[in-house]
Structure formats: C-alpha cells, structure tokens
Amino acid sequence: MNINEVLRSYRDPRLARKLVDKIHYEASKINEKILIMHVCGTHEWTITHYGIRSLLPKNIELRAGPGCPVCITPASDIDNVVKLTIEEGVIAMAYGDVSRAKGSKGLSLDDARSFGGNVRIVYSIQDAVNIALNDKENEYLFFGVGFDTTAPATAYMVLKGIPENLTILSSYRYVPPAVGAVLSMEDIKIDAVICPGHSSTVTGMKPYKKYFDQFKKPMVFAGFEPIDVLIAVYMILKQLTTGDVKMENEYTRSVTWDGNVKAMKTIYKVFNLVDGIWRGLGLVRDSAFEFKNEYRGVNARFKYDIEEPKLDVEFPSGCRCADVIKGKILPIECPLYMKACTPERPIGPCMVSIEGTCRIWYEHNITREVFDYDW
Amino acid sequence: MCLGYPGKIIEIHGDYAKVDFGGVIRDNIIISLVDAKVGDYVIVHAGYAIQVLDEREAIETIKLWREILGEVEEV
Amino acid sequence: MTGEVIKMLHGAGGRYMSRFIKEHILRYLNWSSTEVSLSSLDDSSVVNNVVFTCDSYTVKPIFFPGGDIGKLAVAGTINDILMIGGMPRALSLALIIEEGFPISDLDRILESISNTAREAGVPVITGDTKVVERGSLDKIIVNTAGVGVRHPHLDHNIEVVREYRRDFNSRWLLDSNIKPGDKIIINGFIGDHAIALLSVREGFSFKVDVVSDVAPLIEPMNEVLRVGGVVAAKDPTRGGLANLLNEWVEKSNVGIRIYEERIPIRDSVRNACEYLGLDPLELGNEGKMVIAVVPDMADEVLKALRSTKLGANAEIIGEATDRFKHVVMETLIGGRRVIPPPIGDPVPRIC
Fold first, then answer.
1. Dihedral angle computed from the Cα positions of residues A171, B47, C268 and B8, in that order, rounded to the nearest 10 degrees
2. Every domain of chain A and the residues it spans
C-alpha cells in the first residue's frame, strides 16, 4: 500500500458505511444522550461538509466548542490594532478573516480603512516580514492570531530576526487549558472530547493528561478526514460502553505523545505562557503566549503601550457568540443567525471566520428545517 | 484552516521547502521545525511543516481498521 | 435607498446577483413577452423563432492556460444558444479597448476569435470597436451577441421526450422543464477553468497543471439531441454547478439529489480547491454542460455523450426528486448535505 492509497482510504464510502453501522450498534447500548465536544474549526468543517451529523444515531450529539482562533481573539486586542492603524498610521497586517472580525465597538480592521486606517491582508508571517522589509519608511504591525499550531512559525521568524519596522501583537493561545475550561463548565455536560488534530500534533497529547486525570472523560485525538472523525466517534462510544475510558490517538500518522518538541521549544524561546482571555470563554489560566521581556523589541504591546486584554463587554448587544463559542447553543438557536447576522453583514466573529461555527453552518445552509430534517 | 492532507517535499533550500500537495505546488514552506528530507510527506499549517507524516504508522493504522471493520485485506 | 453602490458581488453569478437582477433589471425591462422572454432568465431568449443572447467578457487575465478572452467570448455565447435548444448561426463582436493596449495582443485575441468561430462554423458578421482613455478600463472588454435558429434535432428530441411524458409541451429546453425522476448528466470535469485562472493570478502562490476547459459544445449537444430525451440544458459558468442546480430547483419547483462520488473532478483540481478553501461545486466552467434527461433515455444519452471528444468523462450525477425542494448532495461517506445557492462565484472575473 502506498501513501496515496492510505489517504484515499480516509474517504472510502465502504469503510464509512461499516463505521456508521458499528457506531449505531454501540450507541444502541447506551440509554442516554451523549454529547461529544470538539475544539477545532476544521473538525466542525469536516463534520458539516460531509454531513456526518446526518449519519449519527439520534442519541449522539457532536458539538463545536472554542475551536476558532479568530472568534476567541479578545475584542480589546482588535480595538487596539484598529486604533493604532487609524490614529498612529501604523500599517496593520492580518489574515483575511482576522481583518473582518469586529471589536467591542463594532469596528473591524477592514472597517478601519474607511477611517483612514491602512490594513494589508497577508497569508503568512513570511509574507508580513517581506512586506515590512520592502517598505522601511513605514511602521508595520502583524496581528498574530492563532493557536499553538500557528505560534511556532512566528516564533521561528522572530528568532531569525524580523525588520525593525515590524512588531507583532501576540493573541496566540494554547489549547489544552481550554479543553480543561469547557470540561469544567457547569451548565453543559460534556461526555467526551474529540481533541484537535494539528494543535496536538504540535503540543503532543501529554499536556491533556492533567485534564483527563481530573475529569476522566474519553479523549480521542482525531484527524480531519471524514473517516478520521467517524473512527474517533466509534472509539469514544467503545470506551463508554466498555467503561475503559482513556486518552486515545486516532490520528497516529501525525499526533504523538510528545508532539513536535522542536516547535514547542521554539515557542518557549520567544514566548511565556500567561493567563489569557478567550473571547466568549473568559479567563483561562496559562493559555496565552506573550513575548518574553528580551523580545520586547518585537512586541507591539510594549512598543505602543497596549494594555493586556481585559474582561470587558465583548460582543454587541443581542450577539450570542459567547454561547456558540462555549458550545452552549447551536447557531440555529441564535435569533440573529441567518437573519440580521450573515457573512455579508456579520455581527459576531462566529459568522466572520472560516472556522467559526455560524459561518460554517451558514455556508452549508443549515437552517432549523435542514438540521431537524429526517434524512 | 488546517489542511488535512500532507504534501511531498520536492526540494529543500535552507529553511524553506517546495512541497507538492497532489498537484498543487507551494514554495516557501518553512521546514526547520521538523526533521525532514526530500521525498518525505509533511503536514503543513500556516506556511510551515508541523510534522513529518509517519508513513509506516499510517499504513499500519488503516490496515488495522480495515481488519476491525471486516474489510478484505487489500494487498 | 440613497447611497447604495454596485459591488463586485452584484456580478458574481450567485444569489446576490440573482436578487439584483430581479429587483433592478427586471423591474424596468420586464414589460414584453416573447416565446422565451427576459423574465425566464434562461441562457437565451426566443423571439419569432430566433434564438438570441449576449454576454460581456471581463475575464482576468486575458490570456490564460487553455485559452483567452477571445476564445471565451465565442464559446460562451455559442453555448448559451445551444443550451436552450438553438443552433448558433452568427455572432456580433463589440470591443472596448483601453488606450495603450498592445496591438499585437489584440491581434492574438482576434486570431483566437477567428479560429474558434471558424471551427464552430459560426461567423462574426457585425461588430463595433471603441477606445477609451488610459485608466478608464482594465485593458479590454469583449461583448458578443449571438443569433440562432431551432436546432435541427430539437423536434426529434422533444418527440422522444413525449414518448415518456405525454404532457410535455415545451418547444425549447427550458430551466422549468424538469420533473421528479429526471436524470442529471454532466459532460466532464468540473473546476478546470477557475483553477487554471487562479493559478496564473497574482497573489496566488501555487502552480498546478490544469488548463481551462473553454470550448463550444456543438458536438456534444448535437449528439444528445440526436438520441433524444433531453428536457433541459445549462452550462455551469459563474457560480458553478451549485448555482445551476439551485436555479433548476427554483424554476422547475423540484428537488435535486446529487452524489459526490459521481461528480467528475480531476485530483489536481480537488486538491487545489482544498488547498485554497474553495468548493468545486461553486466554480465556473466554460466547456461544460449539464442536461436533464427523462430517466428511460439517460443511459443511451450518456453513451452517446461519452462518444464525443468533449463528453468522454460524462457521468450521471443525480436525479430530480419530489422529496424536498433543495439541492442535496450525498457526500463521499454517505452523509447528506444541502447545497445552497452560492452567495457568488468565489473567483471574481472568471468570464
């Protein structure tokens, strides 16, 4: 078997059918409703795009938790970059989605353009560095949004040396504590977690052990192909029906116990792990990457005296993103979804980002009617 | 978004690699955070390789699942 | 509303543009009625048995792998005439050119127009040339209008339809002709044109070995009509297959079910789409046709289509149904998902 055949197998309809049968069989042994939460926008995309929910038994629910980096970026960080670009003439650089997310005053970087702000869309930190290098006359700020998957590349570029006219605002977040945070939520009972595929490729499975030990819920690390997700669901149900609850790796071709040690070491050369605000989720201990003091030269917070994010009014009134991000409600349960809030006129970040639950559902036309439909 | 499938390294120039994602060729992939050589498959996220695909593991795992699910062994 | 301006989305071929056309264009121009009229918003219209259509071409870049704006301008308009059951007879050609545009490039475009038209047997018999100041326009815009007559095989095709559907009384291949059970057939790979364009656009740093599928569809259309049983035909240009099937759902008042496994797509295009975060169903095609066929004739029509050069990879991808009023796709793994009308083609200036 060669690698291409392997990868094709993860979309094999016959394998899928067998997995679905096995899932239904295991689920029939369980009398109650099971809520499985994942924390990755890409998992939500795979689940929605391949219609996985339409294949699952009625008592198994798959729900998205805080897995969208743009969605959980603190509103005050967005506000500050918007302010800098309008008032101080700093040229902001950000990914496309990030530029459309609105801060606490309803303004996004994209909106800042109409007020004279200069904003450039980039696809990677390499792009940002090149642009700043070629335009020494101007001051640039790269808005670093992402999880532990994205942070290493930025850390690496900082170590190599970035131009003097470029600083970085780090809103990078560390995912394992967020899993701990959702498991400790009292108003929603999570029965199992599908752990992220690429974030844990970098961090390894190890940091999740303490949350497993604390909460003793099935944790399966899954890849992004539809068969990966189906296998993960099956693994979880097997754990629940046999009582043998553990941390299991479905994504063995990429995830390991130790993760990418080089990448993590690179992060910690440049960043400290501190308490962090996750928009919608609140304060999560030891979950944010902030530049070490010796790198204050590249730290936009230092250069522009930007305050640390605070727990403030995060969303416009009426917006239910906080509950969507926590997984407390589904997009269809937000009164604004598909009505006042659409990708063309988004109110909250969940409708802006391609990893946002609301946007993913909108693009797949998941209305209440479609969601409830008996296929 | 996370690209689910790996690309094959075609060339390496210092810190950067040229990677082939099944016909889509990308330059400028940072390769320094993994130990990879030309011909390896890598998982790429935000312009850098986060992991070298463990091919043996991948083949063994899918074979195992095919067995568990009662699929005929494909040679 | 005061202050509202035209946005790129208004020309993007999805539901935004669709609403715009209904609220503005039709509002002013929908006062006449011909056999197939403006309000049917079909690929062409028909007046006094003459098939008539027009299109403007703003594709960027003007020269792309597999073709150029000239070839596109001829093929696109010829195809619009074919899709309603017409046989194209002549074209007009209007050129609006920016001052400073190289004449050698213009000659290249004209040669391409000539070759495509000649091969299709459809001459350009009238036209116009305008030049505007440097900066007023991005290089060149081409407009072609086409006239045609009833396709010689159309009557036979309709007779075959009537053998299986007594009450079929349409004289043309309209978007509103589809009934539950009708099979949906496409002549080949989706997404080639859009990916070919993207691979040569600035800011997209990827290379892929795909060329545009741009081509007049005269031969495949001849073949399927010769066999007979076709009730509707359409080309999935702006907004792709997703837009086309949703238009059929709306105009025929049926549901459509398609099967992801059966939709022909090249591996490299699929991979490029995944890489770029694009849905291949929403991408524009310029050498593809989708036909709806009465179920009893589907296999024979498929076979005839596959014997043509442009239909070698044809597949039956689904069928119309009365079970729901959406486009629903059965995914590769057997799940179900609704395919909404796209907001717009994700790739601007594709045609």
1. -130
2. 75-173+259-303
Torsion angles phi and psi, residue A45, rounded to 5: -65, -50
Tell me if C272 and B25 make a contact (CB, 8 A cut-off). Answer: no
Same domain, C173 and C297: yes
Supply the ipTM of this predicted assembly. 0.91
Half-sphere exposure of C330 (CA within 13 A, CB side): 14
Which one-letter amino acid corresponds to residue A219?
M
Beta carbons of C341 and C18 less than 8 angstroms apart: yes
Which ranges of B27-73 does DSSP label H, i.e. alpha helix?
Answer: 55-68
**How many domains does the structure of chain B reveal?**
1
Its pTM stands at 0.88
* C146 DSSP β-pair partners: C53, C91
pLDDT number for residue A78: 95
Do the beta carbons of residue C218 and residue C224 sit within 8 Å?
A: no
User: Which tens digit of pLDDT belongs to each residue from A260-297?
Assistant: 999 999 999 999 999 999 999 999 999 999 999 999 99
Chains in contact with B, counting 3 or more C-beta pairs less than 8 Å apart as contact: A, C
Distance from CA of C6 to the nearest CA of A (A): 14
Residue found under tokens 């918003």: C41
Is the CB of B50 less than 8 angstroms away from the CB of A224? no
Q: Strand pairing of C63-64 and C67-68?
A: antiparallel
C99 touches B at CB < 8 Å: no
Class of domain A75-173+259-303: alpha beta
Indicate the helix (H) or strand (E) that contains C27: helix C26-29
Tens digit of each residue's pLDDT (9 = 90 or more) over C241-286: 999 999 999 999 999 999 999 999 998 899 888 877 789 999 999 9
What is the band of C203 on the pLDDT scale with cuts at 50, 70, 90? low
Give the range of the structural domain holding residue C73, as residue numbers without chain letter.
38-150
Residue that the structure tokens 């040679």 belong to: B75
Instruction: Count CB pairs under 8 A between chains A and B.
Output: 112
Scanning every residue of chain B, which has its alpha carbon at the shortest distance from the alpha carbon of C210?
A: B23
Residues C167 and C132 in one domain: no
Mean pLDDT, range C220-239, rounded to an integer: 97
